Amino acid sequence: MALMINDACVNCAVCEPECPNGAISAGDSIFVIDPDKCTECVGYFAESQCLDVCPVECIVPNPQRPETRGQLQRKFEQLLAI
Ligand code: SF4
Ligand code: SF4
Question: pLDDT tens across 10-38, in order?
Fold first, then answer.
């Protein structure tokens, strides 16, 4: 399941450089996560790196993108191939 950023985001930007997939960027009002690039860090780390650094805990599962670990692994492999 890709992650998403909710309205509690304070635009501190500390999460952006932590993402190994380049999935995080500044949006119109808050930072956003591209669900096509977020693998929950599967393929790189055991834990989601953005969750570890966010000071306000506004990064949550994206209910629009239910994905198994196997699907996240395949997304990781497809991103590597690009
Ligand atoms: S969980 Fe990992 S891949 Fe997904 S946005 Fe956060 S740092 Fe990037
Ligand atoms: S670390 Fe959290 S508060 Fe800071 S920009 Fe990222 S999502 Fe927003």
Answer: 999 999 999 999 999 999 999 999 999 99
19 lines ligand 1 (CB under 6 A): yes
**Cα 47 to Cα 35: distance, rounded to the nearest angstrom:** 17
Q: Do residues 35 and 62 touch, judged by C-beta distance below 8 A? A: yes
Nearest atom in ligand 1 to the alpha carbon of residue 59 is: 6
Q: Which ligand is nearest to the CA of 41?
A: 1
State the pairing for strand pair 24-26/3-5: unpaired
Q: Is ligand 2 within 6 A of the CB of residue 9? A: yes
Given a contact cutoff of 8 angstroms between Cβ atoms, the answer to whether 58 and 5 are in contact is: yes
pLDDT at 9 over 80: yes
